[in-house]
Every structure is written in structure tokens, then in C-alpha cells.
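Long-time lurker, first post. I've been practising inverse folding by hand and with some scripts of my own, and I keep getting stuck on stretches where the C-alpha cells seem ambiguous. Below is the full C-alpha cell string for one chain I'm working on. Before anyone asks, I'm not after the true native sequence, just a reasonable design that respects the backbone. If someone could post their per-position residues I'd love to compare against what I wrote down in my notebook.
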């Protein structure tokens, strides 16, 4: 069964006249008649009964009409969706965002997205960096904003902006009197571990030991719980500088050495972009992330 056969059948159903149906479909009547006959062969019986100048649906014709109408409607909807997709009239994008990336740095960029791709259907998926990489390989994400020290060979990473790491602590802590905190000064501090933090990975990537030893007291995957514990005086925690902090928490830059991460737009190398993804990538490349 082919779509033109379905269209011809439905046209005859509506006009009850082979000549008018052929005119509506912009096809010669013999071609329309042959297509209907072929459809009847495939379905196992006559679909129309001709009585002099009148044409009627047979019982089989009435039976299959709603099903073939659904087929035609689905095909038309698919074609419309495809056209809208190509013209960015409907623009879905599955974007992964590493769960340790704060949203405030992206506000201006998101505003530009709304202006340049007003029909964007942005689906954000939050997870740790390694999970996002796996999801991209599996085709579950189109691309992701990630800040890992390195990526597998199958990925392209376009740097967007850099972000330093800071130490967060409660007011009145000894770090408050320091303009910056050397990493060695974290020795023996009560520490709150952000489970998804990639800070320690920077040292393992270099083959270097972590230059401090802390007293690990608590850990959590949730940033808000870690910050609540910092505010309660239960310890300090390393976090990226653009991560929003609860009022009352103080931060200082870390030095000796100063460690920063690069937030990159990561894509699977060689994978073809949809029109939406291509527009997103081009905007991300030309956007002024330093603003």
C-alpha cells in the first residue's frame, strides 16, 4: 500500500466520483482508477460499487475508510512536523548540564536563545559530568555543558568560560581574615564533601597528590544541603565560584596552586547536528561569555 493510493481512495470517498477525485488529486483518471484497483487487490475486495452514474462505498470500503483516514492524517502530521523542525518552527533540544554548574552565569545566554530561537523547546537534563558523557554517547542528549578536566577522544569540547574554585565557610571562620586561602591551609579542617564535585580530579589528571588532608565529616549530592551545613558551622567546602551560595556563607579564592575549571559545550565528534542544535552551537560560539 502506497500513500498515493490512500489519497486517491479518500478523494473518491469524498466526491463519490472518479472523475472529480482525479481532478482533485491532479492526476489522470485512468491512473487513479488503476491505483484504486491495486489497492482493492491488496485489501482483498472491491472498495466501491458503481451503479450507472453513481459510486458508493462497499461494506469493505466503509470498514477500511477510518483506518486509511488515520494513515493519511498521520502522514500529513509527520510531514508538517518535519517541515517545522527544518524551519525551526518547532525546535527541540536535549541539553545536559553538569549538576555543579550554577545557572546565574547562563542567564544572558538563555535570553539570547529566546530571542534568536523563539520556538526553542529546551529540555534540560542535570547529572554529573561522567553521566552526561555516557548519555550523549547513548543518543539520549544532543549536547551538554560540562566542566571536566578531560574528555574521551570521541568528543569535541568548545571552551565557553573559566571558573575558579573557592572555599566556602561560615562567618567568623579563620579564613575570613585571609584575602585568599592556600590549599595547604585546608589541612585538618572539618570538610563537607560535595559528592559530584570534580575538584580532586584535576590532581589525578596531572598525576599529582592532593596537597591537603581534611577531616571528612559529612557528604551529600545536594548543593543546598552542603551549603546549609556550611552555614550551620559544620565545616567548609570547595565549590565553583559561580555556584550561588546561601546568604551568610563567605568564600575565598584558593591558591598555591589556584585551580580553575573550563566550562565547555561538549558534543559527540562527527555526529550530525539537527537545525536546532546547529543554531544553538553557533550562538554559543559567538556569545560573549566574558560579559
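-- Answer (accepted) --
I ran through it position by position. Result:
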Amino acid at each position: 500500500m502506497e500513500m498515493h493510493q490512500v489519497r486517491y481512495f479518500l478523494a473518491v470517498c469524498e466526491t463519490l466520483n472518479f472523475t472529480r477525485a482525479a481532478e482533485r488529486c491532479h492526476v489522470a483518471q485512468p491512473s487513479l482508477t488503476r491505483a484504486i484497483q491495486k489497492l482493492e487487490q491488496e485489501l482483498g475486495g472491491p472498495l466501491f460499487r458503481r451503479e450507472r452514474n453513481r459510486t458508493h462505498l462497499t461494506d469493505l470500503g466503509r470498514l477500511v475508510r477510518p483506518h486509511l483516514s488515520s494513515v493519511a492524517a498521520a502522514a500529513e502530521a509527520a510531514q508538517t512536523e518535519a517541515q517545522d523542525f527544518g524551519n525551526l518552527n518547532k525546535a527541540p533540544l536535549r541539553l545536559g548540564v553538569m549538576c555543579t554548574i550554577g545557572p546565574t552565569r547562563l542567564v544572558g545566554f538563555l535570553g539570547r536563545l529566546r530571542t534568536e530561537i523563539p520556538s526553542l523547546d529546551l529540555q534540560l537534563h542535570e547529572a554529573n559530568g561522567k553521566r552526561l558523557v555516557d548519555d550523549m554517547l547513548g543518543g539520549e542528549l544532543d549536547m551538554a555543558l560540562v566542566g571536566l578536566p578531560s574528555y574521551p577522544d570521541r568528543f569535541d569540547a568548545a571552551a565557553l568560560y573559566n571558573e575558579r574554585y573557592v572555599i566556602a565557610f561560615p562567618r567568623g571562620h579563620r579564613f575570613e581574615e585571609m584575602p585568599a586561602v592556600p590549599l595547604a591551609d585546608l589541612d585538618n579542617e572539618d570538610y563537607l564533601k560535595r559528592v559530584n564535585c570534580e575538584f580532586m580530579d584535576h590532581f589525578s589528571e596531572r598525576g599529582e597528590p592532593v596537597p591537603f588532608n581534611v577531616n571528612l565529616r559529612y557528604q551529600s549530592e545536594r548543593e543546598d544541603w552542603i551549603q546549609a551545613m556550611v552555614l550551620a558551622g559544620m565545616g567548609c567546602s570547595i565549590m565553583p565560584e559561580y555556584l550561588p551560595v546561601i546568604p551568610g556563607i563567605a568564600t575565598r579564592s584558593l591558591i598555591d596552586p589556584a585551580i580553575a575549571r573550563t566550562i565547555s559545550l561538549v558534543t559527540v565528534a562527527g555526529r550530525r547536528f539537527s537545525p536546532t542544535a546547529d543554531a544553538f552551537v553557533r550562538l554559543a560560539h559567538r556569545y560573549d561569555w566574558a560579559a
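A couple of notes from the structure itself: The domain at 91-291 is CATH 3.40.190.290 (D-Maltodextrin-Binding Protein; domain 2). The first strand starts at residue 48 and ends at 51. Happy to go over any region you disagree with.
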